Amino acid sequence: MADKRDYYEVLGVEKSASEDEIKKAFRKKAKQYHPDLHPDDKEAEKNFKEVNEAYEVLSDKDKKARYDQFGHAGVDPSYGAGGAGGYGGYSGGFDVDDIFSSFFGGFGGRRQSNPNAPRRGTDIETVLSITFEEAAKGCHKKITYQRIEDCDECGGSGAKKGTSAKTCSACGGSGRVTINSRTPFGVVQTTRACDSCGGKGKVVDNPCPRCDGKGRIRRTVEDEFNIPAGVDEGQRLSISGKGNAGINHGPAGDLYIDITVKPHQLFERKGNDVYCTLPLTFVQACLGAEVVVPTLDGKVKYTIKEGVQPGDTFRLKGRGIQSLNGRGKGDEYVKVTIEVPKNLSKRQKELLKEFDTNSTDKNYPGRKSLKDKIEAFGEKIDEFLNK
User: Fold this and answer.
1) Pairing, β 236-239 against β 216-227
2) pLDDT digit string (tens) for 219-228?
3) What are the tens digits of pLDDT across the range 48-88?
4) What angle, rounded to 10 degrees, do the helices at 42-58 and 61-70 form?
5) What is the rounded distance in angstroms from the CA atom of residue 18 to the CA atom of residue 24?
6) Tens of pLDDT along 114-161?
7) Burial of 184 (0-12, 13-18, 19+ CB in 10 A)
8) Mind spelling out the 3-state secondary structure of 288-331?
């Protein structure tokens, strides 16, 4: 384990990064290495696990504080050897928190928690990439992610099968020991996590070989979840009880699924409305036509009025995306573009010239308006120059 990379380096953030910066970095990295985007890529899978592990620590204030102080040993006592003695180890010194705890602990200060009390597991995050249609219509997706579970070999006790953990003789099972420290204020009596049991209150003489005595293992699991219709890019779904296992049989944390949506070749989404572009021929725009328009519900027929202009937009009511709460649907907005014909034959060119010759300002009101404005502007310039 001595070759573990720095968690800040894994996420690509500075040690001073804020919670939001850490979260954004995690989402970016998780999306970059997600197994769905890199099937059968062992290196990407390894990086994805590393990113999840780093975020699990840096997103938790207590774990982050321990990691900042002791490094990997602060969040995983089995990492390396020596050092600060792992999380809760006694280094022989003192800190200001311990001093104030000794003075004010009995008067509303920090309470000493029972190491054997059930505690809720931490929350975890994963990234799910879905198609535009899946986001619009909803879907069932199998999601592969990592979480911490009680070891199935020892049942979470940390002791080898057939044995059991013993009450720590150094702290009597409380997980805390009393330390006398010499400080500038004199000798101060403080309580700290027990060195012998690491604050757990119990000692395992014969550790479980599967979990190395930790009682918990990190597993890759695959679950199928319902993704509701109307979910959008950047939204987060919460799945209760699918996070890391609790401690001492406490409840599991939650799983948060961050949604990313793949771009669509035809549609663009704005809120619950859908936008697309419809190319028309020159003749269709001039004479009008019945055309087929793509929608998320399939193809629909629509009558284009004659004289439609490039950039004109029409609405298909209720053809958008269902609201996430199930109330109502958006609309589809279709923008018209007119494709100028290429590779004209000699006869086609002759017909177009004939058409142009027989055209009048009535056929091009926009051009006539611009022409009138240019002429008016020219007259003003002439008047100015002749003064």
Assistant:
1) unpaired
2) 999 999 999 9
3) 888 888 888 898 888 888 888 778 777 775 554 333 333 33
4) 100
5) 10
6) 767 788 889 999 999 999 999 999 999 999 999 999 998 888 888 888
7) exposed
8) CEEEEEEECCEEEEEEECCCCCCCCEEEECCCCCECCCCCCECC
